[in-house]
């Protein structure tokens, strides 16, 4: 029972670590706001803005499909920016992570107490390739109307 609880807690910690976002402050943070109020800008917004932080995040270890990965990193950038009081993210781009999937085969032979033991195993890694994204958390004093903000990129069906 104790071993299964330890394994469960370890898996939960690993899952939370895989979802982590980070930031480096470059300005003064404000009081946190609702992530739904954070806009994603694919170019500098009209007017003046103040930089608050550089943001970095990843899609997570168990996110499948390109569009789902893009949606995931954009949402995480919004949440991180909102926690710093930024009402915008100047999107810098995405990159694909290292592909580490594969199949492993192992075996063993042992002897103890007058008996011989043998075992074999196969391991398969099916985790998807992660997507990484970066942006700059910004405060826009007079945000433009929603109609002037470009929508997030939508991938063609063959890349989803």
How are the SSEs ordered, and which strands pair?
Elements: H1 2-18, E1 22-25, E2 39-41, E3 49-58, H2 66-83, E4 88-96, E5 102-112, E6 115-125, E7 131-140
Could you walk me through the main structural features you see in this protein, from its secondary elements to its overall organization?
This protein is of the alpha+beta class and 160 residues long. The protein is 22% helix and 36% strand. It has two helices and seven strands; from the N terminus they run H-E-E-E-H-E-E-E-E. The chain has helices spanning 2-18, 66-83; strands at residues 22-25, 39-41, 49-58, 88-96, 102-112, 115-125, 131-140. The protein has a five-stranded mixed beta sheet with strand order 1-3-7-4-2. A hairpin with a 2-residue loop joins strand 5 (102-112) and strand 6.
- CATH topology-level name of the domain at 21-98 and 129-152: Translation Initiation Factor IF3
Return the CATH class of the domain at 21-98 and 129-152: Alpha Beta
Question: Strand content of the residues, in percent?
Answer: 35-45%
Percent helix among the residues?
A: 10-25%
Shape: elongated
Q: Give the number of helices.
A: 2
Instruction: Tell me which CATH architecture of the domain at 21-98 and 129-152 applies here.
Output: 2-Layer Sandwich
Radius of gyration over C-alpha positions, nearest whole angstrom: 22 Å
